[in-house]
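Homework help board

Subject: predicted structure for assignment chain

Our instructor gave us this sequence and asked us to write out the predicted structure in C-alpha coordinate form, then describe one feature. I got the C-alpha coordinates but I'm not sure how to describe them. Can anyone check?
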Amino acid sequence: MTAESTNAPVRHTGTAIAGVGNRVWIWLVGAIVLIATAPIFAILTIAFQASDNIWPHLVSTILPRAAIDTALLLSGVGILTLATGTATAWLVTMYRFPASKFLSWALLLPLAMPTYIIAYSYVEILDFSGPVQTLLRDLMGWRSSRDYWFPEIRSLPGAVFVIASVLYPYVYLTARSAFLAQSVCVLDVSRTLGAGPWDSFRQVAIPLARPALVAGVTIALMETLNDIGAVEYFGVRTLTVTIYTTWLGRGSLSGAAQLAVILLIVVMLLLWLERWSRRKQRFHHTSSKYHGLPTKRIAGWRRVLATLFCLSPVLVGFVIPASLLGIYVYARIGEPPGVSFLSLAGNSLFLSVVAAITAIFAGLVLVYARRFIRWRPLHALTRLASIGYAVPGTVLAIGVLIPLAALDNYIDGWMKNLFGVSTGLLMSGTLFALVLTFTIRFLAISQGAIGAGLGKVSPNLSLAARTLGRSAGGTLRDVDLPLIRPAIITAALLVFVDAMKELPATLLLRPFNFDTLATHVYTYASIERFEDAALPALAIVAVGLVPVAILSATIGLSFRTDRDATIAVQVDR
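My C-alpha coordinate output:
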Protein backbone atom coordinates (compact mmCIF):
# COMPACT_ATOMS: atom_id res chain seq x y z
CA MET A 1 0.00 0.00 0.00
CA THR A 2 1.38 3.42 -0.96
CA ALA A 3 1.66 6.33 1.38
CA GLU A 4 -1.00 8.23 -0.53
CA SER A 5 -3.64 5.58 0.00
CA THR A 6 -3.33 5.91 3.78
CA ASN A 7 -3.63 9.66 3.91
CA ALA A 8 -6.69 11.87 3.95
CA PRO A 9 -8.57 12.40 0.70
CA VAL A 10 -7.45 15.23 -1.51
CA ARG A 11 -10.59 17.27 -0.88
CA HIS A 12 -9.56 17.80 2.76
CA THR A 13 -6.11 19.19 2.01
CA GLY A 14 -7.29 22.76 1.45
CA THR A 15 -7.36 25.33 4.19
CA ALA A 16 -10.34 27.37 5.24
CA ILE A 17 -10.40 31.16 4.96
CA ALA A 18 -8.43 32.09 8.03
CA GLY A 19 -5.19 33.83 8.78
CA VAL A 20 -3.36 36.69 7.15
CA GLY A 21 -1.64 34.41 4.63
CA ASN A 22 -4.86 33.16 3.08
CA ARG A 23 -6.29 36.67 2.94
CA VAL A 24 -3.23 37.80 1.00
CA TRP A 25 -3.81 35.06 -1.56
CA ILE A 26 -7.48 35.99 -1.82
CA TRP A 27 -6.59 39.65 -2.37
CA LEU A 28 -4.08 38.66 -5.06
CA VAL A 29 -6.69 36.52 -6.84
CA GLY A 30 -9.22 39.35 -6.58
CA ALA A 31 -6.78 41.82 -8.11
CA ILE A 32 -5.93 39.49 -11.01
CA VAL A 33 -9.60 38.73 -11.71
CA LEU A 34 -10.47 42.44 -11.58
CA ILE A 35 -7.73 43.26 -14.09
CA ALA A 36 -8.71 40.34 -16.35
CA THR A 37 -12.42 41.21 -16.44
CA ALA A 38 -12.15 45.01 -16.42
CA PRO A 39 -11.90 45.23 -20.26
CA ILE A 40 -15.27 43.49 -20.67
CA PHE A 41 -17.02 45.83 -18.24
CA ALA A 42 -15.32 48.83 -19.86
CA ILE A 43 -16.63 47.84 -23.29
CA LEU A 44 -20.16 47.38 -21.98
CA THR A 45 -20.02 50.72 -20.18
CA ILE A 46 -18.86 52.81 -23.14
CA ALA A 47 -21.13 50.96 -25.56
CA PHE A 48 -24.34 51.67 -23.66
CA GLN A 49 -23.45 55.03 -22.15
CA ALA A 50 -21.78 56.71 -25.11
CA SER A 51 -23.02 60.23 -25.84
CA ASP A 52 -22.82 59.75 -29.61
CA ASN A 53 -25.26 56.87 -29.98
CA ILE A 54 -24.61 55.46 -33.44
CA TRP A 55 -26.51 52.19 -32.95
CA PRO A 56 -29.10 53.10 -35.62
CA HIS A 57 -26.34 53.88 -38.14
CA LEU A 58 -24.49 50.64 -37.35
CA VAL A 59 -27.63 48.51 -37.59
CA SER A 60 -28.76 50.03 -40.88
CA THR A 61 -25.46 50.23 -42.76
CA ILE A 62 -22.46 48.41 -41.31
CA LEU A 63 -23.78 45.57 -39.19
CA PRO A 64 -25.80 43.60 -41.80
CA ARG A 65 -22.88 42.92 -44.13
CA ALA A 66 -20.49 42.29 -41.25
CA ALA A 67 -22.91 39.84 -39.66
CA ILE A 68 -23.50 37.97 -42.94
CA ASP A 69 -19.80 37.74 -43.81
CA THR A 70 -18.97 36.60 -40.27
CA ALA A 71 -21.69 33.94 -40.30
CA LEU A 72 -20.64 32.62 -43.72
CA LEU A 73 -16.98 32.57 -42.75
CA LEU A 74 -17.65 30.74 -39.48
CA SER A 75 -19.93 28.23 -41.21
CA GLY A 76 -17.40 27.46 -43.93
CA VAL A 77 -14.44 27.20 -41.57
CA GLY A 78 -16.44 25.06 -39.14
CA ILE A 79 -17.53 22.56 -41.80
CA LEU A 80 -14.11 22.31 -43.43
CA THR A 81 -12.13 21.99 -40.21
CA LEU A 82 -14.56 19.39 -38.86
CA ALA A 83 -14.37 17.26 -42.00
CA THR A 84 -10.60 17.52 -42.42
CA GLY A 85 -9.67 17.12 -38.76
CA THR A 86 -12.03 14.21 -38.08
CA ALA A 87 -11.23 12.24 -41.22
CA THR A 88 -7.46 12.54 -40.88
CA ALA A 89 -7.57 11.73 -37.16
CA TRP A 90 -9.62 8.58 -37.81
CA LEU A 91 -7.32 7.38 -40.58
CA VAL A 92 -4.02 7.81 -38.73
CA THR A 93 -5.51 6.35 -35.54
CA MET A 94 -7.28 3.28 -36.94
CA TYR A 95 -5.26 2.35 -40.02
CA ARG A 96 -1.71 1.74 -41.11
CA PHE A 97 -0.57 2.98 -44.50
CA PRO A 98 2.63 4.50 -45.93
CA ALA A 99 3.87 7.42 -43.79
CA SER A 100 0.97 7.07 -41.31
CA LYS A 101 3.28 7.44 -38.28
CA PHE A 102 4.94 10.47 -39.82
CA LEU A 103 1.59 12.02 -40.68
CA SER A 104 0.24 11.46 -37.16
CA TRP A 105 2.43 14.35 -35.98
CA ALA A 106 2.97 16.16 -39.30
CA LEU A 107 -0.76 16.96 -39.43
CA LEU A 108 -0.08 19.37 -36.54
CA LEU A 109 2.43 21.45 -38.52
CA PRO A 110 -0.10 24.01 -39.85
CA LEU A 111 -0.53 25.21 -36.24
CA ALA A 112 2.86 26.89 -36.65
CA MET A 113 1.54 28.97 -39.56
CA PRO A 114 -0.37 32.13 -38.50
CA THR A 115 -3.48 32.73 -40.57
CA TYR A 116 -2.28 36.08 -41.89
CA ILE A 117 1.01 34.61 -43.15
CA ILE A 118 -0.65 31.75 -45.00
CA ALA A 119 -3.12 34.22 -46.51
CA TYR A 120 -0.34 36.42 -47.84
CA SER A 121 1.49 33.35 -49.13
CA TYR A 122 -1.43 31.98 -51.14
CA VAL A 123 -2.18 35.36 -52.68
CA GLU A 124 1.44 35.39 -53.86
CA ILE A 125 1.00 31.88 -55.30
CA LEU A 126 -2.52 32.01 -56.78
CA ASP A 127 -2.93 35.66 -57.76
CA PHE A 128 -2.89 36.72 -61.43
CA SER A 129 0.84 37.48 -61.34
CA GLY A 130 1.63 34.41 -59.24
CA PRO A 131 3.45 31.29 -60.47
CA VAL A 132 0.32 29.14 -60.91
CA GLN A 133 -1.57 31.45 -63.27
CA THR A 134 1.63 32.51 -65.00
CA LEU A 135 2.43 28.86 -65.75
CA LEU A 136 -1.10 28.26 -67.05
CA ARG A 137 -0.88 31.24 -69.38
CA ASP A 138 2.49 30.08 -70.70
CA LEU A 139 1.27 26.53 -71.30
CA MET A 140 -2.10 27.41 -72.81
CA GLY A 141 -1.13 30.56 -74.67
CA TRP A 142 -3.51 32.80 -72.73
CA ARG A 143 -2.68 36.47 -72.61
CA SER A 144 -5.07 38.03 -70.09
CA SER A 145 -7.58 37.07 -67.42
CA ARG A 146 -10.39 37.45 -70.01
CA ASP A 147 -9.10 34.37 -71.83
CA TYR A 148 -9.73 31.95 -68.95
CA TRP A 149 -11.41 31.54 -65.59
CA PHE A 150 -9.51 31.04 -62.37
CA PRO A 151 -10.98 31.09 -58.83
CA GLU A 152 -10.41 34.38 -57.05
CA ILE A 153 -8.33 33.78 -53.97
CA ARG A 154 -9.19 37.19 -52.48
CA SER A 155 -12.76 36.27 -51.68
CA LEU A 156 -14.88 34.73 -48.96
CA PRO A 157 -14.39 31.15 -50.28
CA GLY A 158 -10.65 31.84 -50.47
CA ALA A 159 -10.65 33.01 -46.86
CA VAL A 160 -12.54 29.87 -45.78
CA PHE A 161 -10.06 27.64 -47.60
CA VAL A 162 -6.95 29.38 -46.23
CA ILE A 163 -8.12 29.77 -42.63
CA ALA A 164 -9.42 26.20 -42.43
CA SER A 165 -6.08 24.94 -43.78
CA VAL A 166 -4.41 26.39 -40.68
CA LEU A 167 -7.05 25.73 -38.03
CA TYR A 168 -8.11 22.13 -38.75
CA PRO A 169 -5.39 20.78 -36.35
CA TYR A 170 -7.53 21.95 -33.41
CA VAL A 171 -10.20 19.46 -34.47
CA TYR A 172 -7.56 16.87 -35.38
CA LEU A 173 -6.03 17.10 -31.90
CA THR A 174 -9.30 16.66 -30.01
CA ALA A 175 -10.60 14.00 -32.39
CA ARG A 176 -7.41 11.93 -32.28
CA SER A 177 -7.31 12.09 -28.49
CA ALA A 178 -10.95 10.97 -28.36
CA PHE A 179 -10.40 8.12 -30.82
CA LEU A 180 -7.32 6.90 -28.96
CA ALA A 181 -9.27 6.91 -25.70
CA GLN A 182 -12.02 4.70 -27.11
CA SER A 183 -11.99 1.00 -26.35
CA VAL A 184 -11.99 -1.64 -29.08
CA CYS A 185 -14.76 -3.41 -27.16
CA VAL A 186 -17.27 -0.79 -28.30
CA LEU A 187 -16.34 -1.19 -31.95
CA ASP A 188 -16.35 -4.99 -31.63
CA VAL A 189 -19.95 -4.87 -30.44
CA SER A 190 -20.98 -2.82 -33.46
CA ARG A 191 -19.25 -5.24 -35.82
CA THR A 192 -20.90 -8.19 -34.09
CA LEU A 193 -24.24 -6.56 -34.82
CA GLY A 194 -23.35 -6.40 -38.51
CA ALA A 195 -22.04 -2.85 -38.84
CA GLY A 196 -19.30 -2.26 -41.38
CA PRO A 197 -16.31 0.07 -41.00
CA TRP A 198 -18.27 3.10 -42.20
CA ASP A 199 -21.27 2.35 -39.97
CA SER A 200 -18.99 1.81 -36.94
CA PHE A 201 -17.32 5.13 -37.63
CA ARG A 202 -20.57 7.02 -38.16
CA GLN A 203 -22.79 5.44 -35.52
CA VAL A 204 -20.29 4.59 -32.75
CA ALA A 205 -16.96 6.41 -32.98
CA ILE A 206 -18.38 9.82 -33.94
CA PRO A 207 -21.04 9.92 -31.18
CA LEU A 208 -18.42 8.93 -28.60
CA ALA A 209 -16.07 11.66 -29.85
CA ARG A 210 -18.76 14.31 -30.36
CA PRO A 211 -17.93 16.43 -27.29
CA ALA A 212 -14.26 16.51 -28.32
CA LEU A 213 -15.15 17.38 -31.91
CA VAL A 214 -17.41 20.24 -30.82
CA ALA A 215 -14.66 21.55 -28.54
CA GLY A 216 -12.13 21.49 -31.40
CA VAL A 217 -14.48 23.27 -33.81
CA THR A 218 -15.27 25.88 -31.17
CA ILE A 219 -11.59 26.68 -30.70
CA ALA A 220 -11.14 26.96 -34.47
CA LEU A 221 -14.10 29.34 -34.72
CA MET A 222 -12.79 31.47 -31.86
CA GLU A 223 -9.46 31.79 -33.67
CA THR A 224 -11.34 32.71 -36.84
CA LEU A 225 -13.12 35.51 -34.99
CA ASN A 226 -9.79 36.77 -33.68
CA ASP A 227 -8.22 36.97 -37.14
CA ILE A 228 -7.89 40.35 -38.77
CA GLY A 229 -4.89 40.12 -41.12
CA ALA A 230 -6.18 37.33 -43.37
CA VAL A 231 -9.81 38.37 -43.65
CA GLU A 232 -8.98 42.03 -44.26
CA TYR A 233 -6.48 41.03 -46.95
CA PHE A 234 -9.15 38.89 -48.64
CA GLY A 235 -11.70 41.69 -48.50
CA VAL A 236 -14.04 39.90 -46.08
CA ARG A 237 -15.78 42.43 -43.83
CA THR A 238 -16.18 40.45 -40.64
CA LEU A 239 -17.18 41.96 -37.32
CA THR A 240 -13.53 41.97 -36.26
CA VAL A 241 -12.43 43.94 -39.32
CA THR A 242 -15.38 46.30 -38.91
CA ILE A 243 -14.37 47.04 -35.31
CA TYR A 244 -10.81 47.78 -36.46
CA THR A 245 -11.88 50.14 -39.25
CA THR A 246 -14.53 51.85 -37.10
CA TRP A 247 -11.95 52.65 -34.45
CA LEU A 248 -8.96 53.64 -36.57
CA GLY A 249 -10.57 54.50 -39.89
CA ARG A 250 -13.60 56.44 -38.65
CA GLY A 251 -12.12 57.50 -35.30
CA SER A 252 -15.17 56.29 -33.37
CA LEU A 253 -14.16 54.46 -30.20
CA SER A 254 -17.77 54.28 -28.99
CA GLY A 255 -18.88 52.79 -32.30
CA ALA A 256 -16.10 50.20 -32.11
CA ALA A 257 -17.19 49.38 -28.55
CA GLN A 258 -20.79 48.92 -29.66
CA LEU A 259 -19.69 46.55 -32.43
CA ALA A 260 -17.48 44.78 -29.90
CA VAL A 261 -20.56 44.03 -27.82
CA ILE A 262 -22.07 42.24 -30.82
CA LEU A 263 -18.88 40.23 -31.25
CA LEU A 264 -18.87 39.38 -27.55
CA ILE A 265 -22.40 38.03 -27.93
CA VAL A 266 -21.21 35.81 -30.79
CA VAL A 267 -18.33 34.53 -28.65
CA MET A 268 -20.61 33.80 -25.69
CA LEU A 269 -23.01 32.01 -28.04
CA LEU A 270 -20.21 29.79 -29.31
CA LEU A 271 -19.15 28.94 -25.77
CA TRP A 272 -22.74 28.22 -24.78
CA LEU A 273 -23.27 25.96 -27.80
CA GLU A 274 -20.11 24.03 -26.93
CA ARG A 275 -21.26 23.46 -23.35
CA TRP A 276 -24.82 22.68 -24.44
CA SER A 277 -23.63 20.03 -26.89
CA ARG A 278 -21.58 18.33 -24.18
CA ARG A 279 -24.48 18.41 -21.75
CA LYS A 280 -27.07 17.09 -24.17
CA GLN A 281 -24.91 14.42 -25.81
CA ARG A 282 -23.33 12.00 -23.39
CA PHE A 283 -22.10 8.59 -24.42
CA HIS A 284 -20.41 6.09 -22.16
CA HIS A 285 -18.59 2.80 -22.42
CA THR A 286 -20.75 0.03 -20.98
CA SER A 287 -17.72 -2.05 -20.02
CA SER A 288 -15.14 -1.23 -17.39
CA LYS A 289 -12.51 -3.13 -19.37
CA TYR A 290 -10.41 -1.17 -21.81
CA HIS A 291 -8.52 -2.63 -24.74
CA GLY A 292 -6.34 -0.58 -27.03
CA LEU A 293 -7.49 0.02 -30.58
CA PRO A 294 -5.84 -2.34 -33.09
CA THR A 295 -4.64 -0.67 -36.26
CA LYS A 296 -5.61 -2.20 -39.58
CA ARG A 297 -3.27 -2.27 -42.53
CA ILE A 298 -4.77 -0.81 -45.68
CA ALA A 299 -3.87 -2.70 -48.83
CA GLY A 300 -4.01 -1.95 -52.55
CA TRP A 301 -4.79 1.40 -54.10
CA ARG A 302 -6.61 2.54 -50.96
CA ARG A 303 -3.33 2.86 -49.10
CA VAL A 304 -2.08 5.36 -51.67
CA LEU A 305 -5.37 7.26 -51.46
CA ALA A 306 -5.18 7.37 -47.64
CA THR A 307 -1.61 8.69 -47.77
CA LEU A 308 -2.48 11.40 -50.29
CA PHE A 309 -5.60 12.40 -48.37
CA CYS A 310 -3.71 12.87 -45.09
CA LEU A 311 -0.71 14.45 -46.78
CA SER A 312 -2.76 17.10 -48.60
CA PRO A 313 -3.60 19.22 -45.50
CA VAL A 314 0.07 19.20 -44.50
CA LEU A 315 1.14 20.36 -47.95
CA VAL A 316 -1.54 23.04 -48.19
CA GLY A 317 -1.34 24.28 -44.60
CA PHE A 318 2.42 24.22 -44.06
CA VAL A 319 4.77 22.88 -46.74
CA ILE A 320 3.70 25.09 -49.67
CA PRO A 321 3.57 28.45 -47.82
CA ALA A 322 6.73 27.63 -45.82
CA SER A 323 8.51 26.73 -49.07
CA LEU A 324 7.48 30.08 -50.60
CA LEU A 325 8.92 31.91 -47.58
CA GLY A 326 12.09 29.86 -47.86
CA ILE A 327 12.44 30.72 -51.57
CA TYR A 328 12.03 34.44 -50.85
CA VAL A 329 14.56 34.31 -48.04
CA TYR A 330 17.01 32.28 -50.14
CA ALA A 331 16.75 34.83 -52.97
CA ARG A 332 18.20 37.39 -50.56
CA ILE A 333 20.62 35.10 -48.80
CA GLY A 334 23.55 37.35 -49.62
CA GLU A 335 21.97 40.40 -48.03
CA PRO A 336 22.50 40.97 -44.29
CA PRO A 337 19.35 40.86 -42.14
CA GLY A 338 19.86 44.54 -41.36
CA VAL A 339 19.10 46.62 -38.32
CA SER A 340 15.36 46.58 -39.11
CA PHE A 341 14.97 42.82 -38.70
CA LEU A 342 17.11 42.75 -35.57
CA SER A 343 15.06 45.58 -34.09
CA LEU A 344 11.79 43.84 -34.97
CA ALA A 345 13.00 40.58 -33.49
CA GLY A 346 14.15 42.38 -30.36
CA ASN A 347 10.77 44.10 -29.92
CA SER A 348 8.90 40.83 -30.38
CA LEU A 349 11.18 38.96 -28.02
CA PHE A 350 10.89 41.62 -25.34
CA LEU A 351 7.10 41.75 -25.48
CA SER A 352 6.74 37.98 -25.56
CA VAL A 353 9.17 37.36 -22.69
CA VAL A 354 7.56 39.97 -20.43
CA ALA A 355 4.07 38.70 -21.28
CA ALA A 356 5.14 35.11 -20.53
CA ILE A 357 6.61 36.10 -17.15
CA THR A 358 3.54 38.06 -16.07
CA ALA A 359 1.14 35.37 -17.30
CA ILE A 360 3.08 32.67 -15.45
CA PHE A 361 3.03 34.67 -12.22
CA ALA A 362 -0.71 35.32 -12.47
CA GLY A 363 -1.40 31.71 -13.43
CA LEU A 364 0.58 30.40 -10.46
CA VAL A 365 -1.37 32.61 -8.05
CA LEU A 366 -4.74 31.51 -9.45
CA VAL A 367 -3.94 27.79 -9.59
CA TYR A 368 -2.30 27.65 -6.17
CA ALA A 369 -5.07 29.61 -4.46
CA ARG A 370 -7.74 27.40 -6.03
CA ARG A 371 -5.94 24.29 -4.85
CA PHE A 372 -5.50 25.15 -1.18
CA ILE A 373 -8.28 27.53 -0.20
CA ARG A 374 -11.69 25.92 0.24
CA TRP A 375 -14.01 28.71 -0.85
CA ARG A 376 -16.32 28.23 -3.80
CA PRO A 377 -16.49 31.91 -4.82
CA LEU A 378 -12.70 31.91 -5.06
CA HIS A 379 -12.75 28.87 -7.35
CA ALA A 380 -15.33 30.55 -9.58
CA LEU A 381 -13.26 33.73 -9.72
CA THR A 382 -10.10 31.90 -10.80
CA ARG A 383 -11.98 30.38 -13.71
CA LEU A 384 -13.51 33.73 -14.62
CA ALA A 385 -10.00 35.13 -15.03
CA SER A 386 -9.56 32.91 -18.11
CA ILE A 387 -12.25 34.73 -20.07
CA GLY A 388 -9.65 36.80 -21.92
CA TYR A 389 -8.68 33.90 -24.18
CA ALA A 390 -12.23 33.74 -25.51
CA VAL A 391 -12.24 37.45 -26.39
CA PRO A 392 -10.86 38.45 -29.81
CA GLY A 393 -7.75 40.62 -29.72
CA THR A 394 -9.48 43.65 -31.22
CA VAL A 395 -12.22 43.58 -28.58
CA LEU A 396 -9.73 43.07 -25.78
CA ALA A 397 -7.59 45.94 -27.06
CA ILE A 398 -10.57 48.31 -26.88
CA GLY A 399 -11.43 47.07 -23.40
CA VAL A 400 -7.89 47.62 -22.16
CA LEU A 401 -7.53 51.05 -23.73
CA ILE A 402 -10.68 52.52 -22.17
CA PRO A 403 -9.75 52.15 -18.46
CA LEU A 404 -6.06 52.91 -19.09
CA ALA A 405 -6.94 56.10 -20.96
CA ALA A 406 -9.28 57.14 -18.14
CA LEU A 407 -6.53 56.47 -15.60
CA ASP A 408 -4.02 58.45 -17.68
CA ASN A 409 -6.41 61.39 -17.86
CA TYR A 410 -7.01 61.27 -14.11
CA ILE A 411 -3.28 61.21 -13.30
CA ASP A 412 -2.61 63.98 -15.82
CA GLY A 413 -5.34 66.20 -14.36
CA TRP A 414 -4.16 65.52 -10.81
CA MET A 415 -0.55 66.40 -11.66
CA LYS A 416 -1.63 69.57 -13.47
CA ASN A 417 -3.66 70.76 -10.50
CA LEU A 418 -0.94 70.06 -7.96
CA PHE A 419 2.30 70.76 -9.81
CA GLY A 420 1.31 72.26 -13.15
CA VAL A 421 2.97 69.38 -14.97
CA SER A 422 1.35 67.30 -17.72
CA THR A 423 2.22 63.61 -17.54
CA GLY A 424 0.69 62.70 -20.90
CA LEU A 425 0.11 59.03 -21.71
CA LEU A 426 1.77 56.90 -19.07
CA MET A 427 0.05 53.59 -19.82
CA SER A 428 -2.44 53.68 -22.69
CA GLY A 429 0.14 54.73 -25.27
CA THR A 430 3.01 52.59 -24.05
CA LEU A 431 4.18 49.00 -24.03
CA PHE A 432 2.43 48.55 -20.70
CA ALA A 433 -0.91 48.35 -22.50
CA LEU A 434 0.40 45.68 -24.87
CA VAL A 435 1.91 43.56 -22.11
CA LEU A 436 -1.28 43.83 -20.08
CA THR A 437 -3.40 42.80 -23.07
CA PHE A 438 -1.16 39.81 -23.83
CA THR A 439 -1.25 38.74 -20.18
CA ILE A 440 -5.04 38.88 -20.02
CA ARG A 441 -5.50 37.12 -23.35
CA PHE A 442 -3.08 34.27 -22.67
CA LEU A 443 -3.71 33.83 -18.95
CA ALA A 444 -5.93 30.83 -19.72
CA ILE A 445 -2.99 29.05 -21.38
CA SER A 446 -0.77 29.68 -18.38
CA GLN A 447 -3.45 28.65 -15.90
CA GLY A 448 -4.32 25.50 -17.82
CA ALA A 449 -0.76 24.24 -18.24
CA ILE A 450 0.25 25.00 -14.66
CA GLY A 451 -2.97 23.51 -13.31
CA ALA A 452 -2.36 20.30 -15.24
CA GLY A 453 1.19 20.08 -13.88
CA LEU A 454 0.18 20.81 -10.30
CA GLY A 455 -2.64 18.28 -10.55
CA LYS A 456 -0.07 15.52 -10.95
CA VAL A 457 1.66 16.46 -7.69
CA SER A 458 0.23 14.82 -4.59
CA PRO A 459 -1.36 17.46 -2.34
CA ASN A 460 -0.09 15.48 0.63
CA LEU A 461 3.43 16.77 -0.01
CA SER A 462 2.26 20.35 0.33
CA LEU A 463 0.11 19.43 3.33
CA ALA A 464 3.15 17.95 5.05
CA ALA A 465 5.09 21.15 4.47
CA ARG A 466 2.23 23.26 5.84
CA THR A 467 2.02 20.97 8.88
CA LEU A 468 5.72 21.55 9.50
CA GLY A 469 5.15 25.30 9.63
CA ARG A 470 5.73 26.37 6.04
CA SER A 471 3.55 29.20 4.76
CA ALA A 472 1.62 28.86 1.51
CA GLY A 473 4.27 30.92 -0.29
CA GLY A 474 7.09 28.93 1.27
CA THR A 475 5.42 25.65 0.31
CA LEU A 476 5.00 26.85 -3.24
CA ARG A 477 8.63 27.97 -3.43
CA ASP A 478 10.30 24.99 -1.73
CA VAL A 479 8.02 22.06 -2.59
CA ASP A 480 5.72 22.63 -5.55
CA LEU A 481 7.75 24.85 -7.87
CA PRO A 482 10.61 22.35 -8.27
CA LEU A 483 8.10 19.59 -9.02
CA ILE A 484 6.09 21.54 -11.60
CA ARG A 485 9.04 23.20 -13.33
CA PRO A 486 8.38 21.32 -16.64
CA ALA A 487 4.76 22.51 -16.63
CA ILE A 488 5.86 26.10 -15.98
CA ILE A 489 8.39 25.95 -18.81
CA THR A 490 5.73 24.54 -21.14
CA ALA A 491 3.26 27.26 -20.16
CA ALA A 492 5.89 29.98 -20.64
CA LEU A 493 6.78 28.66 -24.10
CA LEU A 494 3.14 28.50 -25.19
CA VAL A 495 2.43 32.06 -24.02
CA PHE A 496 5.68 33.26 -25.59
CA VAL A 497 4.82 31.78 -28.98
CA ASP A 498 1.24 33.05 -28.99
CA ALA A 499 2.44 36.53 -28.06
CA MET A 500 4.95 36.45 -30.92
CA LYS A 501 2.16 35.67 -33.41
CA GLU A 502 -0.50 38.03 -32.02
CA LEU A 503 -1.47 40.64 -34.60
CA PRO A 504 -4.85 42.35 -33.89
CA ALA A 505 -4.07 43.62 -30.38
CA THR A 506 -0.55 44.64 -31.41
CA LEU A 507 -1.85 46.67 -34.35
CA LEU A 508 -4.27 48.58 -32.17
CA LEU A 509 -2.16 49.20 -29.05
CA ARG A 510 1.45 49.49 -30.20
CA PRO A 511 3.19 52.80 -29.51
CA PHE A 512 4.15 55.06 -32.39
CA ASN A 513 7.20 53.92 -34.36
CA PHE A 514 7.12 50.53 -32.62
CA ASP A 515 6.85 47.45 -34.81
CA THR A 516 7.06 43.73 -34.18
CA LEU A 517 7.66 40.87 -36.58
CA ALA A 518 3.90 40.39 -36.95
CA THR A 519 3.07 44.05 -37.64
CA HIS A 520 5.99 44.32 -40.08
CA VAL A 521 4.67 41.36 -42.08
CA TYR A 522 1.18 42.89 -42.07
CA THR A 523 2.43 46.31 -43.20
CA TYR A 524 4.53 45.03 -46.10
CA ALA A 525 1.87 42.57 -47.26
CA SER A 526 -0.70 45.38 -47.33
CA ILE A 527 1.47 47.31 -49.81
CA GLU A 528 2.11 44.20 -51.96
CA ARG A 529 5.72 43.76 -50.82
CA PHE A 530 5.39 40.44 -49.06
CA GLU A 531 8.78 39.24 -50.31
CA ASP A 532 10.38 41.98 -48.19
CA ALA A 533 8.66 40.50 -45.13
CA ALA A 534 9.60 36.89 -45.85
CA LEU A 535 12.37 36.71 -43.25
CA PRO A 536 10.22 38.03 -40.36
CA ALA A 537 7.38 35.76 -41.48
CA LEU A 538 9.67 32.73 -41.58
CA ALA A 539 10.98 33.62 -38.12
CA ILE A 540 7.40 33.66 -36.77
CA VAL A 541 6.72 30.27 -38.36
CA ALA A 542 9.93 28.83 -36.88
CA VAL A 543 8.94 30.00 -33.41
CA GLY A 544 5.46 28.57 -33.99
CA LEU A 545 6.97 25.10 -34.36
CA VAL A 546 7.67 25.06 -30.61
CA PRO A 547 4.08 24.34 -29.47
CA VAL A 548 3.74 21.81 -32.29
CA ALA A 549 6.72 19.90 -30.90
CA ILE A 550 5.27 20.12 -27.37
CA LEU A 551 1.88 18.84 -28.52
CA SER A 552 3.43 16.00 -30.51
CA ALA A 553 5.52 14.93 -27.52
CA THR A 554 2.50 15.15 -25.22
CA ILE A 555 0.36 12.95 -27.44
CA GLY A 556 3.21 10.49 -27.87
CA LEU A 557 3.77 10.16 -24.11
CA SER A 558 0.08 9.92 -23.32
CA PHE A 559 -0.71 7.11 -25.69
CA ARG A 560 2.60 5.33 -26.23
CA THR A 561 1.65 2.43 -23.98
CA ASP A 562 -1.64 1.88 -25.73
CA ARG A 563 -0.10 2.11 -29.18
CA ASP A 564 2.69 -0.30 -28.33
CA ALA A 565 0.09 -2.81 -27.16
CA THR A 566 -1.97 -2.69 -30.34
CA ILE A 567 -1.85 -5.44 -32.93
CA ALA A 568 -1.61 -4.65 -36.62
CA VAL A 569 -4.23 -6.60 -38.54
CA GLN A 570 -3.84 -7.25 -42.27
CA VAL A 571 -7.12 -6.46 -44.02
CA ASP A 572 -7.51 -7.37 -47.68
CA ARG A 573 -9.70 -4.94 -49.51
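Reply (TA_rk): Your C-alpha coordinates look well-formed. For the description, you could write something like this. The chain is about 75% helix and 0% strand. That's the kind of observation they're looking for.
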